[in-house]
Amino acid sequence: MKPEAKKGHAPAALVRAVKCTKCGAPIELRNVQSLSVVCGSCGSVLDARDPSLAVLATVHRQNKRVPMIPLGSKGRLKGELFQCIGFMTRKTYIEGSDYFWNEYLLFNPYKGYRWLVEYQGHWTSVKPAHLTPEASGSGYLFFGEFYKHFQTCQAQVWYVIGEFYWQVEAGDKATLEDYVCPPNILSLEKAPGETSWSVGTYVEGREVWEAFALAGDPPAPSGIAPAQPSPTGSDGAKVWAHMAAFLLIALLIHGLIDSISLKKRVYMNSFQYSSAETEKSKVTDFFELPGRTSNVIVRTSAAVDNHWLFNAYALINEQTGTAYDFGREVGYYHGVDDGEAWSEGAQVDEVVLSSVPAGKYYLRIEPQTDLPQVTYTVEVRRDEPQFFVFGIVVALLLLPPIVLQFRQHSFEVRRWAESDHPMTEEE
Amino acid sequence: MRLKTYRIYGIAILLSFLYLQYVGWALTDADEVPNVPRSVRDNPGSYRSHYHQHYSGGK
Q: Is A113 helix (H, G, I), strand (E, B) or coil?
């Protein structure tokens, strides 16, 4: 059980070389405030305040662990210099499996104690919480932030080495309650007669490695840690707010373009097709496409009934000789199959031609049909804003926030899967 | 960072939207044929449309 640590007041620590009272192995004492020191060789717990290092407890150790941060090494974490003076591995037993994590005790004579907790390659920098969090619903309020209950478990010290500010030995048990508000975590540690709060912040392994100048690379994180910040960041709400603003602007742009658009019919006429005619191609009268470069809408209608009409069109600029070739079909079919009525196609077709410059134009029409004769009407309109473009813009603006939201939700589902309150995909 | 990226993305989308709506952009486009002779008006059958040969028609 870790009692609440007091802030250090001692001057810079001096290293004192001693020998284990039990086995004679060399031990270094770095912190005059330490109450106990655990021999790395035999695991005996010695009284660090007793000049003769009286044996407080003897432990039969089955396993050994090598701390990734060597005892005695110094590092600057978040700008503050600390020395690693103790290391322990703790474990908990959940649903038939043991889960292990490592805790490094850091000390600075002016800043006091810190813990670096490592679990599956995830690191958390923990310090004592000198204020007691305020209970609120399923969690606690701490400095205005709500910490939600994540997990409660029974922890046991499995391996320990170095100096501590309380008497610690392998086998020590405590109840741990974790509350998260990523990237922060509140932990309540309870043992008979004692409770202590600590508050931690998620730290990248790379940061720990750089702080303590450790060789190689930090172990790759596995899974998601309780306090791990979401990779999608905390921008979700802001991105949605921006999306709403962009949609409003898009609507204004659409309204603006709509207000300056001509939306004008520039030509309309009916033509008669007859298979008896030698020359079936026709040209229309000249018509003016006014205004700026904009779209042209060509509408073809024909009273075809279970027949089709296909017009090969050329919209020809009289001045430049540039033609815009396109083909359109009008076909309407209907009938009854197995007692069920059906229909397909329409007697009207419309096409929007993109970005046609202003000028004097005519249409050359070359009709084909399976009818001996048919009347068709051609209407040309100019400069009509297309709502589908607005639809595409809405879809493009919506896509990133939706993807972000989805990724954020998936991340939270994976985070809480390891907790006492797993989320379902539907939540 | 994501917010900044989305801000840039959104502004690019809106500017493109403004431009495309202004020039009357549409999904369907015609084949542009340059230098069509003026004689087509007097002899419409002389013009060879891109679509004349391709259509077989109907259902």
A: strand
Contact A242 B52 (CB under 8 A): no
What residue has token string 């000049």? A51
Give the ipTM of the model, two decimals please.
0.88
Min Cα separation A204/chain B (Å): 18
Residues in A touching B52 (Cβ below 8 Å): 312, 366
Shortest alpha-carbon distance between residue B39 and chain A (Å): 11
Q: How far is A414 from chain B (nearest CA, A)?
A: 21
- B12 in contact with chain A, both atoms CB, cutoff 8 A: no
CA distance A412 to A406: 10
One-letter identity of residue A361? Y
pLDDT digits (tens, 9 = 90+) for A42-68: 777 888 778 777 777 776 655 678 899
Measure the CA–CA gap between A126 and A105, rounded to whole angstroms: 10
Nearest C-alpha neighbor of A328 from the set A286, A299, A354, A293? A299
Q: Using CB atoms, pick whichever of B2, B23, B44 lies closest to residue A281.
A: B44
User: Is A353 in the B-facing interface, judged by CB distances under 8 Å?
Assistant: yes
Contact B30 A246 (CB under 8 A): no
Which pTM does this prediction carry? 0.72
pLDDT per position as a tens digit, A86-144: 999 999 988 888 999 999 999 998 889 999 999 999 999 999 998 999 999 889 999 99
Tokens (6 digits) for A50: 């007793």
Rounded to whole angstroms, the maximal C-alpha distance in chain A is 124
CA angle A246, A248, A251 (to 5 degrees): 110
Nearest to A246 by CA among B49, B9, B19: B9
Check residue A346 and report its DSSP letter. E
Q: Can you point out the beta strands (E) in B1-59?
A: 31-33
Greatest CA separation for chain B: 64
How many whole angstroms separate alpha carbon A106 and alpha carbon A123? Answer: 14
DSSP line for A306-320: SEEEEEEEEEEETTT
> Which pair of structure tokens corresponds to residue A292?
């700026």
Residues of chain B with Cβ-Cβ distance to A240 below 8 Å are none
Using the Cβ of B53 and the Cβ atoms of chain A, whether some distance falls under 8 Å is answered with no
Question: Torsions phi, psi of A399, nearest 5?
Answer: -55, -55
